[in-house]
Design goal:
Layout lengths: L1 H19 L2 E7 L6 H11 L8 H8 L9 H11 L6 H17 L2 E8 L1 H6 L5 H19 L2 E9 L4 H13 L5 E7 L11 H9 L3 E6 L5 H9 L5 E4 L7 H10 L2 E4 L1 H6 L11 H6 L4 E3 L4 H4 L3 H12 L3 H13 L5 H17 L8
Parallel strand pairs: 1-2, 2-3, 3-4, 4-5, 5-6, 6-7, 7-8
Helix pairs in contact: 1-15, 2-3, 5-7, 8-9, 16-17
Amino acid sequence: MHETSLKIKRRKSLRDTLQNLPKVDLHRHLEGSLRLSTLAEIAREYGVDLPSYDIEALRPYVQVTTDEQPDFHAFLEKFSFLARFYPKLECIDRIAYEAVADAAQDNIRYLELRFNPVTLTLSQGFYFEEVVERVISAVKKAEQDFDIMVRLLTTIRRDYDLDTASRIVDMAIHYADQSIVGLDLAGDEVHYSAYPFAGLFNKAKEAGLGITVHAGEATGAESVRTAIELLGADRIGHGVRASEDLTVMDLVRKRGIALEMCLTSNIQTAAVKTITQHPLRAFYQIGLPVTINTDDPSVSNTTLTDEYMVAVRGIGVTVPEIKQMILTGVRVAFLSRSEKERLEAFFTEALSNSKEGLAGV
């Protein structure tokens, strides 16, 4: 009994330590950050057709549950269901604001929140411009209210036609002086190639946007190579399967390409079979720039503190190593040099003042 009590105490101390760390999240999707309570309220207020308006009955449609088998396409299906919850522009205001509020609650001090303007416009035929401006406005208000620094990325899905993708790129470039700092490629990398988007991503990069690409998640290391060499990726979303090819890992290391790792999501999508097989720590130990992120906190039912807990308990990452990964996140953020210098000074001081507790390790 005493041993069990001690384990609980140590676990709580570890969680408190990790909760109190100032954090960086570079890979978080707005569309995967909707509160379940908000979904139910929007559905009731605007008459969204649902199987049930009860939160627990709604949960399996929008969140990965413990009894689900890991599956990439089942994971993506949650977003198809979630697309019905943007019936009015005011809903987008609320969802964007709450996403930032929830990040701040987890002591995230710098957040890069990515969103897909097509997803947000599709159900009601909103104009791209009004959706993007609503997201920017809501995020800026939340920044002020919750003392958090937020930047935005726009996402293109691999199954989009070039006209749609081009509109997203042009929109990102147009609003680059209003919080949008990067461009992301996401979606089904098994059935849809990155090749058609090379010109658009090069255009975005030349315009000064940071480039991140989901790759090496559902298919092999060659997808990571393509993202770097063809699309000019500065960072890779996930990239777990880069471990399958030493030449790709060498490419990542030599070019300083940061890997945005999302542990819980990688289990739920079957990118890795078990947490002990996750390459995060192995990548860190050979000098690859790695960061820990949430991906879709609502869909995965996680927080960044939870992800740190998984890293420590599941694969033996130490608290000092997590601090280094946080600083890596600052260094690879899509910010100007002066902004990164100021942010790094803040995080260096804040992390040096944080206590390790029983977790120290």
